[in-house]
Amino acid sequence: MPEVADIFRLHGARYLERFGQNILPSHRRALRDLCNCRTAALGGQLYVCDHCGREHYVYHSCRNRACPKCHGKDTEAWLTARRQELLPVPYFHVVFTLPQPLRDMVRRQQKVLYPILMKAAAKALIKLAADPHYVGGFIGVLAVLHTWSRTLTYHPHVHCLVPGGGLSADGQWRPARKDYLVPIRALSAIFRGIFLDLVTKALPDVVIPDSVRKQKWVVHCKPTVQGAENVLTYLGRYVHRIAITDHRILSIEDGTVTFRYQNARDYQWHTMTVTAEEFMRRFLQHVLPRGVHKVRYYGLWAPSNRGRLQRIRQSLTGQQAEAVVACDEGCDQPLSHQAARCPFCPSGTLVLVRRVQPQRRAPP
After folding, report:
1. Element holding 259 (H helix, E strand)
2. DSSP state of 305
C-alpha cells in the first residue's frame, strides 16, 4: 500500500531543489522526518523468532506531529483524558471559518494569527453564552485548529466542542436549550469583531479589506445528535497528525499521486490526481510552525478551571471523578508481550536480540 512517506522519498529531493530557499524549517523537518519514519535511519530493535529463526526489525517512529503513522497511543491517551472530562449534558459542535480574503494574510502570519483565530472563536462563544437570554453562565470550549479541506487545499477553521450549559454567577449549573445554544448571526458578528480587533492590536501595519468588515462570516452550530464522544473521536484523529492518512493514497506513478476524498455535500467518495509536487505542497502547507498549538482549552475547559469542571461533573452525576494519567508512551517502544508473535510462522515468539543504532544518513 502506498504511503505519504513514499511520495516524499521519491520526489522530496526534487521538491527541495526547486523550493528549498522558500521552505519553512518546520516543513523541511517534516519532510525529513516522514522519510526516516520507521526505517533504519532512526534505529530500533532486532528480534529473532525462537521457532523459525527469522529476523524481524522494529524501527523507531519519527514522532513528528504531521506524520500519519505516529501517535496512535498519544491519540488514545488524549481521547481517554477528554472523555473523563465530558459532562453528562448535551453538547454542541461549533465551527468558525475565516473568509477567503483573509486566508493569504493568515498563511503569511501563521504563528501570530492561528492563536488569535482560536482565541477569538472561544471568546465570542463565552461572551454570548453569558447572556441570560441564552445560557446565562460560564461555558467551556475545547478548540481544535484545522487548516485543510478534504482535498488538502488551504482552509483555516476552528472546531469547538461546547457543553450545553454553563456555570452561573451563584455557582449553579444552568442548562442550555436542547437544540439551541446561541444565535448564529450574533455569534458570527461578535467573532468577526473580536478577531479583527485582536489582529489590529497584534499586527498594526496589516491592511484589512473593508469588504471583510462588512460581510457575514461563516459559523455553524449544531447539537451533537450522535453524542459528544463521536465529535471527540473525529477531532482526535487530527490532534496528533494532519490532513490525510495513508489509506487514502491510492497510487503513486508517473510523477502523480491519486488519493480519495469524501465529498462534503453527498458524502460520496471521489478520487483526485495531482502531481507529486502539488501533493507535497498541499500537505506541507498544513504543517504548523514550531510552538503553535493545535488544541486549546478555554472557559471551564481551561487548565485553571479543571477542578471546577470536575466538581460540576461530580454534582451532575453524583459520582467521584476518576483521576486520569496521560500516557506519554510513543509508538517507538519495543514490542509488548502480546504483540511479540512472529509474523512469519504461527507458533513462534519474537525474542529481543539487540538494539539497532540510528544511522546518520537518510534511508535510500
Report:
1. strand 256-262
2. G
φ, ψ of residue 81 in degrees (nearest 5)? -65, -40
Looking at residue 160, its pLDDT comes to 96
- Mapping DSSP to helix (H, G, I), strand (E, B) and coil, where does residue 149 land? coil
Residues 10, 364: Cα–Cα separation, whole Å: 9
Query: What phi and psi values does residue 58 have, to the nearest 5 degrees?
Result: -120, 105
Asked whether residue 81 carries a pLDDT value surpassing 50, the answer given is yes
- Determine the Cα–Cα distance for residues 118 and 111; give it in Å rounded to an integer: 12
Burial class (CB in 10 A: 0-12, 13-18, 19+), 307: exposed
Supply the DSSP symbol for 273.
Answer: E
* pLDDT at residue number 73: 87
Q: What is the pLDDT of residue 58?
A: 87
54 within 8 A of 22, measured Cβ to Cβ: no
The residue ranges of every structural domain in the chain are: 4-64+329-356, 72-243+286-317
Burial of 224 (0-12, 13-18, 19+ CB in 10 A): middle
pLDDT in tens, 286-300: 999 999 999 999 999
Instruction: Output the CA torsion sign for 137, 80, 122, 228.
Output: negative
DSSP letter, residue 157: E
Q: Are the CB atoms for 138 and 172 separated by under 8 Å?
A: no
Crossing angle between the packed helical segments 276-284 and 25-36, to the nearest 10 degrees: 120
CB under 8 Å to 104, separation ≥6 — which residues?
none
Residue 154's beta-bridge partner residues? 148
Cα 10 from Cα 158, distance rounded (Å): 33
Q: Give the C-alpha separation, 361 to 249, whole Å.
A: 27
Average pLDDT value for residue range 141-155: 95
- C-alpha cell at position 31: 519532510
- The helix (H) or strand (E) run that includes residue 174 is strand 173-175
Neighbours of 348 (CB within 10 A): 19
CA distance between the termini of the chain = 18
Nearest-5° Cα angle at 221, 182 to 90:
80
